[in-house]
Amino acid sequence: MGFKRISLAADVEMAWDILTKSRVDLVILAGNREPAMGIDLLRSVRADRVLARKPFIMMTANMSLDYWQTAIAAGASDFLCKPFNLKQLQDTVMLVLAQERRAKPKRETTEAPPPRPLQKPQFSPS
Q1: Choice between 34 and 9, residue whose per-residue pLDDT is larger
Q2: 80 is in which domain, residue-wise?
Q3: Is 59 helix (H, G, I), strand (E, B) or coil?
Q4: Residue 15, in any domain of the structure
Q5: d(CA 119, CA 121)
Q6: pLDDT score, position 62
Q7: pLDDT in tens, 18-58
Q8: CATH classification of the domain holding 32
Q9: Beta bridge partners of 59
Q10: How far apart are the C-alpha atoms of 12 and 120, rounded to whole Å?
């Protein structure tokens, strides 16, 4: 797909650290054993002034309508339902990135992003 760097996180705390300390163009959340923690991460991304507009794809085997509605309400950009194939992943990533580029407001490159809150979000299983 042409990506130069991919970062992997073992849990949502590590994912948050990567998101807040690295340049990230896209978030794909996969294989979360604690679905509520994935939703918490999504909500934290959407609440963060710097990360709020980052595309966020959720890969899940959870077919519960409640889960999907909760994720959409929390700001998921798109879903991939497991099992899926590489073409479905590529298509979803390209679609979400294209939507993000169209929606991105133009800003001066010298403008610094606003500062983040000093407190790290708490992620806890439900």
Answers
A1: 9
A2: 23-102
A3: strand
A4: no
A5: 6
A6: 83
A7: 999 998 999 999 866 676 788 999 999 999 999 999 999 99
A8: 3.40.50.2300
A9: 80
A10: 12
